[in-house]
């Protein structure tokens, strides 16, 4: 004869299901509210190519979903993914031209834990865009170590043809050494937005400190660079280090800074 399952197991199962449904509903509502400003805007065509540079150990999921969202919201009509192998070979998928409305390029490094090599590969990629595709102006958007790669690129002395950097977004990043000598070479014409996250009750996004993000903005401003700061404060769903690039409020800040 089959024994009846204790009533408390049924109660526990219903409670867990209710909590999951409540969490899913809360996430949906959070996303819908955060997305409203994005859907309501009209984005101008800047004719500037925006290059997204991911962080340490990253892959196509870092910026792939973000650039797809931007395309759906009509901020762009050209999205490209460029995968760079450990040897520097480029594999291009998506748009092969960079002359549409606010073209976006999501970069994916195969060797994503080698910042010195990645900086060289980024420099070579931008040179290739300038000479082979006549890309004269770019924006750089870097997450975590991708921001540091962008900073190294911006403060290096280039001997080959490179596009002009118009805007630079650094988010979820901080300086890991004294930047004074490098900041002297940072182009003063580049407009900069620094983005950080703070989980409620924490000192940052559980990977990068809020104090470090604020110092990033402060040092750039002290060097004479036009810089603004945006801090997203919330739960780990939106404010955690690797959640910031899957956050509609961050999307809205980036789109406003780049294309409105």
Automatic annotation (TrEMBL):
<dbReference type="GO" id="GO:0016787">
    <property type="term" value="F:hydrolase activity"/>
</dbReference>
<keyword id="KW-0472">Membrane</keyword>
<keyword id="KW-1133">Transmembrane helix</keyword>
<dbReference type="InterPro" id="IPR010315">
    <property type="entry name" value="DUF915_hydro-like"/>
</dbReference>
<dbReference type="Pfam" id="PF06028">
    <property type="entry name" value="DUF915"/>
</dbReference>
<keyword id="KW-0812">Transmembrane</keyword>
<dbReference type="InterPro" id="IPR029058">
    <property type="entry name" value="AB_hydrolase_fold"/>
</dbReference>
<protein>
    <submittedName>
        <fullName>Alpha/beta hydrolase</fullName>
    </submittedName>
</protein>
<keyword id="KW-0378">Hydrolase</keyword>
<feature type="transmembrane region" description="Helical">
    <location>
        <begin position="12"/>
        <end position="31"/>
    </location>
</feature>
